[in-house]
Structure prediction request, 246 residues.
Amino acid sequence: MDHSALAAGVLEGTDTGSQKDRVVTKEEWLQKWEMGNIGFHKEQGHPLLQKHLDVLLNGRSGLRIFFPLCGKAVEMKCLADMGHSVVGVELSEQALKEFFAEHSLPYCEEPVPEISGAKKLRSTSGNISLYCCSIYDLSSSIVGKFDAVWDRGALVAVNPRDRQHYVSLMITLMEKNSSYLLVTVSYDPNKHKGPPFYVPESEIKSLFGNHCEIKCLEQVDDFQDRHRQWGLDYFLEVLYILKFVA
Prediction:
């Protein structure tokens, strides 16, 4: 089966099936972590970030890098080891504690005075700060602004009705001349309710187009057994680079 040809047809369309009304609750996300239903986690890191890391960093050092809906992404440790400052946000405290435990990183917990019930887990080295709260509770006054973003499993995970809210927030967190690597997924949205949700290229352009330059870097076939079990015939990851120009 020519997955690329199929995807080309889907990417050109704007039909998102019945997904626009789909709502995933906080409790559902927390349950995924509690049950170990985290097939989206990449234990060895994400090959697209490894391949295109230079595009994200653009020769710069000492960056502030944001991981929205970070889970326990292993790249946070890798980038911190390279001398960058990493900030993440995640609903699941379990995910964040697993991140520190699996990398044998000592950390401390701190309250976040501006956000009721939130906490920040900060590595004792100081260059990894992970917020346990809703991303919508964050603002630049709390977390500052960022030179780079790795958005994999974030935009495609937020409820479709919240996409504009999410993107509006992300735009306020970006420094001028920052880089934003965005991974979306392509499949037939009439065959799977999500998440991850299908976000067509036309919507990427309408959400971000007024604020940055958008370029599609690569499409890769990521079809796995779990996707077949969802009833899908193909599943691709699509990588974009968004440049927030001054």
Q: What stands out?
A: Residues 35 and 61 are 38 Å apart (CA to CA). The radius of gyration is 17 Å.
